Amino acid sequence: MEKRQELYAGKAKSVYATDDPDRLVLHFRDDTSAFDGERMESLARKGMVNNRFNAFIMGKLEEAGIPTHVEGLLSDTECLVKKLDMIPVECVVRNVAAGGLVKRLGVQEGQELTPPTFELFLKNDQLHDPMINESLAVTFGWATAEQLAEMKALTYRVNDVLKRLFADGGLLLVDYKLEFGLFNGQIVLGDEFSPDGCRLWDAETREKLDKDRFRQGLGGVIEAYEEVGRRIGVEFK
Ligand code: ADP
Ligand code: CDP
């Protein structure tokens, strides 16, 4: 496999073409952004940590029968993936109230959500990823009703697998965001699963061990990501 030209540089990752039209290289950079790119910082080791974290989680999901784009690690910061036709809709499941939900609805942070909630957001930085619903997604052609149903079912299956995995490491999976795409017509999980796109709290102390440490200026961001990884069995360098 040969890495070719850069196709896209996002806020945290760069995407490269390969000699295979169906494969891409994702390069996990040290760049960290919050508030739709308003705050950017480089955090040493972050690219390596998130790349290895993501490959580990995607492997666990594959084992559970959830189709993912990950084909394998190429280096500390690079991953070979299937090239997906990305669906511009973010799927969020919440087990515990935090972040945007608390702000929007004025509910108590830390409140257990039974059953877990499911929300859709349009992936659009300029519009600050507005909340949408199935009707809007279908009408504007972002996804079909069948695709949305499949995305929702897969997002909940991910919850079953990962809630248990993190609980075994003494961690509470508070919420997370997933992005899906199409590969030969099949819905496949893309992008990344790392502490950048989810909330993880220590189950006992409720200490925040995810990107909220960066958003809230708490420090020890990458140390927290590594601690989470270590507790679930991710191998870092
Ligand atoms: P953003 O675009 O939000 O700044 P990133 O810096 O993470 O995010 O950039 C990675 C980009 O690659 C995202 O736009 C994501 O949707 C896209 N992407 C992730 N996985 C795949 C894939 N398998 N195929 C095509 N695009 C992908
Ligand atoms: O955290 P924020 O207030 O931006 O939004 P949220 O709706 O509370 O986010 C729910 C979960 O999805 C959190 O774990 C976020 O980290 C994640 N998310 C993300 O990774 N990317 C987005 N564009 C939006 C949410």
TrEMBL record:
One of its GO terms (cellular component) is cytosol. GO terms for biological process: 'de novo' IMP biosynthetic process; cobalamin biosynthetic process. It catalyses: 5-amino-1-(5-phospho-D-ribosyl)imidazole-4-carboxylate + L-aspartate + ATP = (2S)-2-[5-amino-1-(5-phospho-beta-D-ribosyl)imidazole-4-carboxamido]succinate + ADP + phosphate + 2 H(+). It is an enzyme of class 6 (ligase). InterPro entries: SAICAR_synt/ADE2_N, SAICAR_synt_PurC, SAICAR_synth, SAICAR_synthetase, SAICAR_synthetase_CS. HAMAP family: SAICAR_synth. Keywords: ATP-binding, Ligase, Nucleotide-binding, Purine biosynthesis. This is Phosphoribosylaminoimidazole-succinocarboxamide synthase. It comes from the Bacteria. Its EC number is 6.3.2.6. Pfam families: SAICAR_synt. GO terms for molecular function: ATP binding; phosphoribosylaminoimidazolesuccinocarboxamide synthase activity. Pathway: Purine metabolism; IMP biosynthesis via de novo pathway; 5-amino-1-(5-phospho-D-ribosyl)imidazole-4-carboxamide from 5-amino-1-(5-phospho-D-ribosyl)imidazole-4-carboxylate: step 1/2. The keyword Methyltransferase does not apply. Residues 7-231 form the SAICAR synthetase/ADE2 N-terminal domain. NCBIfam families: purC. Belongs to the SAICAR synthetase family. PROSITE patterns: SAICAR_SYNTHETASE_2.
